[in-house]
Every structure is written in structure tokens, then in C-alpha cells.
Amino acid sequence: MLNRYPLWKYLLILVVLLVGLVYSLPNLFPEDPAVQISSDRGELSFSQSQQQSLEQALAEADIDVKTVEQEPNSLLIRLNDAEDQIPARDLIAQQLGDDYVVALNLAESTPEWLSSLAASPMTLGLDLRGGVHFLLEVDMEAAVNQRLEVNASAMRETLREERIRYRNTEIDGRTISLDFMNAEDRDAAETLIRREFPDFQYQDVERERGASLAMTLTDASVDEIQDYAINQNLTTLRNRVNELGVAEPLVQRQGPDRIVVELPGVQDTAAAKRIVGATANLEFRLEARTDTPSNETEALSFRNEPGRTADLMRDVIITGDSVSSASRGFDENGRPQVNINLDGTGGTLMNRATRTNIGRNMAVVFIEHKTRDRTVMEDGEQVTVRDPYTERGIISLATIQSALGNSFRITGLESPTEAGELALLLRSGSLAAPIYFAQERTIGPSLGADNIERGMLSVQIGLLLVVLFMLIRYKVFGVIANIALALNLTLLVAAMSMLGATLTLPGIAGIVLTLGMAVDANVLIFERIREELRTGLSVQQAIHAGYERAFSSIVDANITTLLVALILFSIGTGPVKGFAVTLSLGILTSMFTALLVTRAMVNLIYGGKPVKKLWI
Fold first, then answer.
1. Is 122 contained in some domain?
2. What is the pTM for the complete model shown?
3. Where are the bilayer-spanning segments (predicted)?
4. Nearest alpha carbon to residue 413 among 395, 400, 394, 393
5. Which segments of 473-536 are extended strands (E)?
6. Are 395 and 366 in contact (CB under 8 A)?
7. pLDDT, tens digit, 9 for 90 and up, residues 600-615
8. Which residues pair with 362 in a beta bridge?
9. Are 488 and 513 in contact (CB under 8 A)?
């Protein structure tokens, strides 16, 4: 029989629509403006009396508090009005002092029954939700110095293996200098080193006593090191941001030595800086023997015990770059630790070093690059100068009981939070060069609210115009098309929520375009039905022919548009991707509603009934 669906198809359409309705509902519950209190070290110690004192201070300042929630490492104060966020933050910061970090936040308000179904609202982009914007500067000179340090260590190891004696190693600018007892040792060393280190220009230096070899990096090698540094830093920063769980972050290069990082929805700038900007790495070194020459040792203090020091070998066994995975854990006494797995090369080097040094102490050195800002006068104006410096501290010093392999653990950490952050940094990889915050900016949610309001207004105006046109042009069939259009918008929102897609301002533009394209298929079908009626076909035959014969045109038009959207998504970045996501999902949902949902409604209204005239 014409224009009748089997029962299973009606049920399938109904299930899809119900699922879409349920998973679009969380978007009706907007996030609460909130203030988050945390410690600058990641752990929070907050008493009940302090909490009550804060609530009283906020009440006296006429700031309406919705709820106060104690979380594992923070205190979340939900507010009823977004305008109260900044005054509340300033008041709380004044009350607590410098021991706490007070940041703006947006807290989800999805009901528990929806959360239990894994339903959550759409993720909003930086332009809608707010967040943080960082401009990071890569220290290119430090990148070259780090490479020279690694090369110098490798050269010393090579000379020791070949039993070629040397006196001293110095690094000055781009040059490594090695001192020898005589010219014969220098020439033998040069022949050996040239073969393994072709990126240097070699020069013999004669001295009154002995001889020296000066090795200077070529310009091409320096350019290669600096390009590698910024690309490696890009990769590492992307890994760190992914570990933070930020949806649709932006991490991209800007100019020769700068990187832009944008984190939508992140209001806690201190926490974001602590993870994104951390330049920490690890070095594993042996403790020096009593008879080791002083030029091959370095005295370092313990990170958690400033008064305690140990003499370590300058040569590094491995660094954090050799870590393939790391996770936080606890030892048998409940103290925090980091479980380490090394890659193949790192495991081999660790096994080789520990196998021949059983009974000797091995240290884990934590290295962090920082800066100090100072103000100087230049040409009568105050100028801020950044002085970089490096802090090295021993995390643990333990005796090697047996040969270590690819897996071991690091102990001696102060807190589970410190262990978790160290594991995160090791998992995501170390930075090839230190980075400094050249600029940081917090984009408040008020700007996002304004963008959302204008975007929603554009969607409403577009939807209203389309609805009016369809009603005037197609009457009863226009009502069917408008119902399908509303269901299409619901399914689109549900799909973006379920897939975790991020809605941006260009994405809203994609939704507006989708609304116009969604009824395009209905227009093709309804006009085709009109043509079939003019040729003298019966109502049932005209409806059937209209849907069947317009099908190929609809599919062809939407497939080509979908291909363009996929290309935009694959090669585009930022706003272009946001537009492509909503456009591609909108095409899929509009085809479903135009070809199946409207057909099901038409079948239920007209299918199998003696209809003499269509209101179309």
C-alpha cells in the first residue's frame, strides 16, 4: 500500500527522536557562575570556620550565594548572578590573602538523572564561554645550550670509552672546548668526535701547556635546533592540554619563536599556568665517588630539604625524554610515588648504568627553568628585563639494589598532587626549550554571554522567517516541515552534545545556515508533489512520486555540501572547524528529518486514506 511505513520504522524514528530529546535537555540548564578557591600548590586546607566566615562576608556584601561545595582540592562557591563573580573573587582574595588562588569558574548544573545517562551540555568555545589566552615565548638560546650540554656529555662518554684523556670541558656561546694533555690526544679525539658529531666546525687551539679543541655549531645546525625546539614544544603543549581535558583548545605557532595557547572554559589561570608553562624535567645521575675529579661533579641540594646536599656526576644517565609512560601511585607506607616506564633506548641505558654500579647511590634530579623580572632605566624610561635562571633539586637519592630495567618508581614527593602533576608532565613529554609567558589574558564569561545572546537572536530570526515562509507557501505541509525543522534543531544539539563537539560563534553561523538548508529538501519534495498533481496523478500517487523522485536530487546536493564541510574540517583551524562541525552534523540531521520524519508524518496523516485534495 502506498505511503505506509512498517511498524518497526515508525518505532525506529520515535526512538531516535526520544534519544535526541533526552540528550539535548542538558543545554536547557545553563552553567552557574562560580568562584573557585584552590591552593597555589594544588592542595587545599580549608576549615569549616573559614567557610562560614567567607559566606558571612559575601552576604554582608549583598552577593547572593547559591551553594558552596567542597571538592577534593578546591572550594566551589556557586553564585546566582554572573555580575557578582568579580566582586566575589576580589572580596574572597582579600579575606584569604596570598596563600590561596581565587579564580572565576563556570560550574555545570545538569540534573543528576541526566548526568547518570552521560548526558551533558554542549561544550562552548573560547568566544562563547570565556577562558584563558596565553602567548608563550620560546627561549631559543636555551635550546642551543641544552643541545650543547647533551653533546658535551656524549663526547666525554665517547672519550672515556676510547681511553683518551682530557682535562676540562667548557661551553661558551655556541662553542664546546675540550682541553688535552698534548696535541696527540687532541688529534685522536678530533678524529673520533668528527665522525660522530658532524654538525660542528672544528678548530685546533694551541696553548702553553697542552692543547685544546674548539667545536662550534654551524649556522644550519643552530637553525635546525631552534626549529626542532619550537615544534617539539608545540607537540608537548598539545599533549599537556589534552591531559587537562580541555575541549577544542588552540595551540599554534605564531612567528619564529612564539606559541599561542587558548583554553576555552578554563577560568583558573594559576592551575593552567602551572601545567602549561611548567618547564620541568628529570635527570637520573649517579652520586659521585670520593675520588672523582671536581670538574666532573656538581653539588646539588635536596628539593624538600634545602640544608642537605649531595655531590653528583655531571654526566646524565637518562632524562625525562626517555619516559614512555608515567602514573601516580602510593608505596606500601601510603606515600605518593610516580611509576615510570622507559622506552627501549632509555631502558637499555638505565640497565647498563645500574648493572655496573650496584651498591652505589643514584639521584633523581628535578630541573625547572624560571625567570625573574627586574626594572631598569633605558633612555629615561622604565623597562622590564627578564632574567632566566634554572633551579635544580634532588627529589630522591636511593641505593641501587639491583640492575634496573624499563620499569621503576620515583619516591620522595611531597604530596599526591605533586606526584600527579609530575606524572602528567612526564607523560606529555618535556619541553625542548624553556618557555616564558609573554602575555596572558582571561576572557570572562560576560563576553561569551553577549555572543551567545546575539547568536541565539540570529538563530531565532532565521527560524522565524523560515517558519513563516513554509506556512504561507505550503500550508499543512508547511506545518509538517516546521515540526521537522524543530526536531532537526533538537537532533543537531543532541548530536553535538553526545559527540563532545565545541560550539563556537562560527558554529552558530553554521546552525543558521543549516536551518535554511534543512527546509530546502522539503521544498524540493513539496514542489515535486505539486508537479505530479498537475499531471493528473492521484493524491496518494503524487505523494509517493514526490518523495521518490526528489530523493536523488536531495542526496546529491547534501553529499557534495557534506564533502566540502569535511574538507573544511580537515584543513581548517579554529573558527573554520567550528563552522564545519555544525554544518556537517546539520546536513546529516536535516536529511534524516526531511526524508524520514516528514514522510512518517505525511504517511500517518494521509497514508491509506481517501484524500481528494491536498493543502499544499
1. no
2. 0.60
3. 455-472, 479-501, 507-529, 550-571, 583-606
4. 395
5. 502-503
6. yes
7. 998 888 887 887 777 7
8. 286, 398
9. no
